[in-house]
């Protein structure tokens, strides 16, 4: 009967004779759990309201076109490239796409590629194993692994070093990452939304950006 009760959704199962302290503690834990579930749902609703597509204000033709694209792409897992000048709301759009997608209950991680030093960007994104480099005394989980199931927003992706670009390409192609200092590949299910204020076509001509990565990133623009 205990197993059946738990299968049916019981929070706990107490046997007779009842111990008063155990009963009170169990009820307290059940109330706390119920309260946490309600608070979590309220926070999720607040997030969806804050980042709803309808909440994005803009009356220009370009903005209306962008909003229509967002509505269509939100329900998919397609890779998205957002192009625009600094301060035009690229991260707001990325968050709106995530919180209106089937991944909305999973993590959303924003990374400013221009703000992370070149020698640290790979360890931030992919993590590392103990001994991978001087000072790496313990395992560190990278942002891709931590965002598994969710969406990672790579802002200012035009500033990524070429060697890191090749590893992002591998994530898109093979859906896996490898921590620095490890030979083991780890499967990840992460939607990539990237943004830039640069003209990546010109960066490709200058050999500053990989052409194959560019076309992988701009499935939807």
Give a quick rundown of the structure:
This protein has 221 residues and is an alpha/beta fold. The protein has 9 helices and 8 strands.
Count the helices. How many? 9
Q: Measure the end-to-end span.
A: 56 Å
Unreliable residue stretches: none
Oligomer: single chain
Strand order of the largest sheet: 1-8-5-2
Instruction: Using the alpha-carbon principal axes, give the shape.
Output: globular
Task: Quote the beta fraction.
Answer: 5-15%
Number of DSSP strand runs: 8
Round the Cα radius of gyration to an integer and report it.
Answer: 22 Å
Mean model confidence by pLDDT: 89
Let me know the largest β-sheet: 4 strands, parallel
As a percent range, the share of helical residues equals 40-55%
Computed structural class: alpha/beta
Order of helices and strands: HHHEHEHEEHEHEEEHH
Describe this structure in words.
With 221 residues, this protein is α/β, with parallel strands linked by helices. It has nine helices and eight strands. Helix 3 (61-74) runs parallel beside helix 4 and helix 7 (162-174) crosses helix 9 (211-217). 21% of the residues are buried. The mean pLDDT is 89.
Task: Show the helix and strand layout.
Layout: H1 2-7, H2 20-50, H3 61-74, E1 80-83, H4 90-99, E2 108-112, H5 121-126, E3 127-128, E4 140-141, H6 143-146, E5 151-155, H7 162-174, E6 176-177, E7 186-187, E8 191-196, H8 200-205, H9 211-217
Parallel strand pairs: 1-8, 2-5, 5-8
Antiparallel strand pairs: 3-4, 6-7
Helix pairs in contact: 3-4, 7-9
């Amino acid at each position: 009967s205990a197993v059946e009760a738990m299968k049916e959704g019981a929070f706990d199962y107490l046997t007779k004779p009842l111990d008063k302290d155990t009963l009170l503690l169990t009820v307290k834990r059940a109330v706390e759990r119920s309260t946490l579930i309600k608070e979590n749902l309220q926070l999720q609703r607040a997030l969806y309201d804050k980042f709803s597509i309808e909440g994005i204000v803009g009356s220009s033709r370009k903005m209306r076109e962008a909003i229509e694209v967002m509505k269509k792409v939100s329900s998919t897992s397609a890779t998205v490239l957002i192009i625009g000048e600094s301060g035009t709301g690229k991260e707001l759009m990325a968050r709106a796409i995530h919180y209106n997608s089937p991944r909305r209950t999973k993590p959303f991680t924003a990374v400013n590629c221009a703000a992370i030093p070149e020698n640290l960007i790979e360890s931030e994104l992919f993590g590392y194993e103990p001994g991978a480099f001087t000072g790496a005394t313990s395992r560190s989980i990278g942002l891709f692994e931590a965002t598994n199931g969710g969406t990672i927003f790579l802002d200012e992706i035009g500033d990524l070093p070429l060697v890191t670009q090749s590893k992002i390409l591998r994530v898109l192609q093979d859906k896996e990452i490898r921590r620095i200092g490890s030979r083991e590949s780890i499967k990840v299910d992460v939607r990539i939304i990237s943004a830039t204020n640069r003209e990546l076509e010109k960066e490709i001509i200058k050999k500053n950006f990989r052409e194959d990565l560019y076309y992988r990133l701009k499935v939807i623009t």
